[in-house]
Write the structure tokens for this entry.
Amino acid sequence: MPGVRDRHPLPVGRAGLPVEEILFVVALYGDRALTALAPRFARDGGLTGRGGSTEREQPGLSCGSGSGMSCGAV
């Protein structure tokens, strides 16, 4: 049975995507999607350039630093 990410791949851009789909993809892929779909917002909001997972480019790894969540493959 394919996973949710298999059924909803990360889009390369936001052109033609409804707001609901953008929000869904950001919820599903986190800062990778936010950086890809709203780069100016991510940059201006200070969400990039701080050593987060977007900069590390570790596909399949999701960490919640200090959030009580553990890191692991997703």
Observations:
- The first helix runs from residue 4 to 7.
- Residues 4-73 form one domain.
